[in-house]
Amino acid sequence: MVSCLMVAALVLASCAPAAPPEEEAAPVEKEEAIVTPEEEVVTEEEEVVTEEEEVVLVVEIRGSPEFTRQTEKALSLLQNKAPDAFLKVQYFIGIIEQGEHSGMWAYEDPPRYEVSDMTAFYSVTWYAGTIAHDATHSQLYHEYLIQHGNPVPQDVWGGTKVELFCILYQINVMKSIDAPQFEIDYLISLDGKYYDIDGDGDLDWDDYYGRDW
User: Fold this and answer.
1) Is residue 13 in a domain?
2) What is the extent of the structural domain holding 44?
3) Could you give the number of structural domains in the chain?
4) What is d(CA 9, CA 140) in angstroms, rounded to the nearest whole number?
């Protein structure tokens, strides 16, 4: 599941919000996956070819072949339409990995964005926006770490104010990549408290395991 799970009780993965209600979306169907016992991994030496230009990935992708293809599409979209966001991702996310829940494990080396299928396959635009969102969480963590060292307080890179800050960045990226307006409107409607699943005012393991995205 997650390496470093026992780092500390309150050092958890910050996250982008869940996608809009499913009935509002025009979801992209998953492609037929080749059955294989091994995960497909894309490393920085491999090149991803898009219709517009070649994309050389620094980020390592871990997951099924269909997850890898969807992630490549999302990263290509960022590179072609939101290059500043794409550059941020290259700096502050080292691994994008398929998982049960979505969250940014910024304190791992390299920083890892865990992504559930609910997030990755909702739409390419939504997925791309969440990558930019969680790269911002990682950026906040690492900028504090460089300036002040450990420990990095949770409220530096997580919590309601930080979520609203990351959502604002995500909205700007979504506009740049021509995301559907309902996805943007959904982000605008959020209050930044979606991370607190159990409503007890903090971010803990109950919240992480309670995410259905």
Assistant:
1) no
2) 39-206
3) 1
4) 20
The Cα 132–Cα 162 span in angstroms is: 14
d(CA 80, CA 77): 5
What pLDDT does 42 receive?
44
CA separation for the pair 133, 31 (Å, rounded): 25
Residue 19, in any domain of the structure = no
How far apart (Å, rounded) are the C-alpha atoms in residues 180 and 52?
Answer: 21
Angle at which helices 160-176 and 83-92 cross, to 10°: 130
Report the pLDDT value the prediction gives residue 191, as an integer from 0 to 100. 87
Task: Count CA within 13 A, CB hemisphere, residue 209.
Answer: 6
pLDDT per residue as tens digits for the range 3-58: 332 233 334 566 677 788 864 544 444 444 333 334 444 443 334 434 445 555 68
- What pairs with residue 40 in β-bridges? 63
Structure tokens at 198: 């159990």
CA distances from 95 to 1, 9, 68, 173 (A): 14, 23, 12, 20
Q: In terms of DSSP H, where are the helices of 51-204?
A: 65-81, 83-92, 117-120, 124-148, 154-157, 160-176, 181-189
